[in-house]
UniProtKB/TrEMBL annotation:
Name the record gives this protein: RIO1 family protein
Organism: Moraxella cuniculi DSM 21768
Highest taxon above the source species: Bacteria
InterPro entries found in the cross-reference section: Kinase-like_dom_sf (IPR011009)
Lineage: Bacteria, Pseudomonadati, Pseudomonadota, Gammaproteobacteria, Moraxellales
Length: 253
C-alpha cells in the first residue's frame, strides 16, 4: 500500500486534527486532517489594534482551517523543502488531509526547558543560527515559536497552516519570525538565569540584520518597555513572558 492509500485509510478514522501513526514498515508519520473552519471574527480585533498602533507585525495571519489550511501547509512544506530548509517531507496529500514524515526529535522548547543553564543558552543560539539560515535562503517560517522547532542533529521546523506573506512583506515575515522565536524562548532563559547571555547573542544577530528589519522588531516591542518591571509570577504568566522579551531585546540591558 502506498502513502496515498495509507493517508486515505488513516485519515478516515483519525479522531483529532493531527496525530502520529506507525506505518507497516515501522516508520512514523504525522497526518493532519482539515479542522473546522476558523471564524474570521476572532482576527478583527487584533487587526484593528495593529492598524491603530501602526504595528504591522501584530497583524493577524488568518487561518480559517478547513481544506484551505491543508493547501497552505502543502504549499509551504514544498516551498521550504525546495529551498533546503529542514522541514518534514510531504509524503501524500488529498483535499482534506496530508501525510508528512516525522522529524523524530524533541522540540527546542523542551530541550531548553530540561537543559542546564549553559546548555540552554547553546540551544538558544542554535535556534538563532537555524532561523538565520532560513532567512538567508530567502524564506520565512510561519509560527517560529520554540514549540514548533525540532532540535536534533539538525534544527527543523513544523506547523505551516498559515502563511504570513498574505498580509506582510518578506522582510516583515522574517521580522515576525524573530519576534515569535524570542518571545517563546525569553521566559525559558529568564527561568535559567541566562537572559543577559542570551541578550548578547541576540544583539550580535540583530546588528547583522538589515536596518529596516531591525527597526521593525524594536518598534513593535519597545513601546512596552515599562512592562519589564512586572517580571514576577504574581503578575501572571503572559505578563512575565512579555517582560522577559522586553529585557531580551533591550539594548541597554
Amino acid at each position: 500500500m502506498n502513502h496515498a492509500q495509507l493517508l486515505a485509510e488513516l485519515a478516515a478514522t483519525q479522531q483529532g486534527a493531527i496525530a502520529r501513526h506507525q506505518l507497516p514498515d515501522q516508520s512514523y508519520v504525522w497526518i493532519r486532517r482539515a479542522s473546522r473552519r476558523h471564524s474570521i471574527h476572532k482576527y478583527r480585533l487584533l487587526g484593528f489594534f495593529s492598524r491603530l498602533l501602526g504595528l504591522p507585525l501584530l497583524s493577524p495571519v488568518q487561518n480559517f482551517g478547513g481544506t484551505a489550511a491543508i493547501a497552505t501547509e502543502v504549499h509551504r512544506l514544498t516551498q521550504l523543502r525546495q529551498a533546503g530548509v529542514y522541514v518534514p517531507v510531504l509524503l501524500a496529500c488529498q483535499d482534506d488531509a496530508l501525510m508528512m514524515s516525522d522529524l523524530q526529535s524533541d522540540t527546542l522548547e523542551h530541550k531548553i526547558w530540561q537543559a542546564n543553564a549553559d546548555e540552554a543558552v547553546r540551544w538558544f543560539e542554535q535556534g538563532i543560527q537555524a532561523i538565520t539560515l532560513v532567512h538567508e535562503r530567502g524564506q520565512y517560517l510561519s509560527q517560529a515559536f520554540a514549540r514548533n522547532i525540532i532540535a536534533g542533529e539538525q534544527i527543523g521546523f513544523i506547523d505551516f497552516e498559515d502563511d504570513p506573506i498574505k498580509v506582510l512583506s518578506l522582510a516583515q515575515c522574517q521580522a515576525r519570525d524573530w519576534l515569535c522565536y524570542l518571545q517563546s524562548t525569553a521566559i525559558l532563559l529568564n527561568n535559567k538565569g541566562r537572559l543577559n547571555q542570551a541578550r548578547q547573542i541576540w544583539q550580535a544577530t540583530a546588528n547583522s540584520l538589515p536596518a529596516q528589519m531591525r527597526d521593525e522588531i524594536y518598534r513593535t516591542v519597545m513601546p512596552l518597555r515599562w512592562i519589564r518591571h512586572f517580571n514576577h509570577r504574581k503578575f501572571g504568566g503572559d505578563t512575565v513572558k512579555l517582560a522577559s522579551l522586553v529585557v531580551l531585546l533591550d539594548k541597554n540591558g
